[in-house]
Amino acid sequence: MPLATPEDLLARKRAALVHDLIADDGVALSPAEVRRHPALLAALGDAEAAIRAALAAGKRYLPAEIDALPTESRALLVRIACDLAAAFLMERNPARDPDETVRARELAERWLGQLRDGSAALPGSEAEGAGLPTVNGPTALDYDRLNLLPDRVRNYFPARHGRLPTDRR
């Protein structure tokens, strides 16, 4: 299943903009022709390949995990794919405003960079909690309630706070 479809792109970008980006020689296209246009499908495919390559490079998401993401996580990937596809279409049409092309590309690349380096994670994925430390030891209260031999013979052993290294008191 592709990450983004032509309908996703048209829902996130103005239809007139998409039409202008794929229409060669100013020929008017019907909405059905826009959805089936090879340039549009190629841009969406290129965007998906770029996303999968970035996520694989970060070694945080397996291809099976990407395909099994819940809807809210897929929505972010669809947004990134649509932004990338629009940037690819803008690069295809050099008459467009180059600053607009750069902004669209930078936005998508910023998201991909955050997903790649781990500063952002897709909700509902296993990478969402990856890298965070886990604490699975006794609490201070549990430690104080231990009935240890040094605590029972206080006159023989030093006090508990005196047994810790000096830099950890």
Break the fold down into its secondary structure elements and pairings.
Layout: H1 6-12, H2 15-22, H3 31-36, H4 38-57, H5 63-67, H6 71-92, H7 98-117, H8 140-145, H9 149-152, H10 160-163
Produce a short descriptive summary.
The protein is mostly helical. The protein is built from ten helices and no strands. It is rod-shaped.
Major sheet size, sense and barrel closure: none
> How large is the radius of gyration?
27 Å
Helical amount = 55-70%
Counting helices, strands and paired strands, the structural category is mainly alpha
Low-confidence stretches: none
Q: What's the quaternary structure here?
A: single chain
Number of helices: 10
How do the SSEs run, as a string of H and E? HHHHHHHHHH
Coarse shape? rod-shaped
Outline the structure in words.
- The chain has 169 residues and is an all-alpha fold.
- The protein has ten helices and no strands.
- The protein has helices at residues 6-12, 15-22, 31-36, 38-57, 63-67, 71-92, 98-117, 140-145, 149-152, 160-163.
- α4 packs parallel to α7 (98-117).
- The radius of gyration is 27 Å and the shape is rod-shaped.
- The mean pLDDT is 78.
Give a quick set of tags describing it:
169 residues; mainly alpha; 10 helices; 60% helix; 0% strand
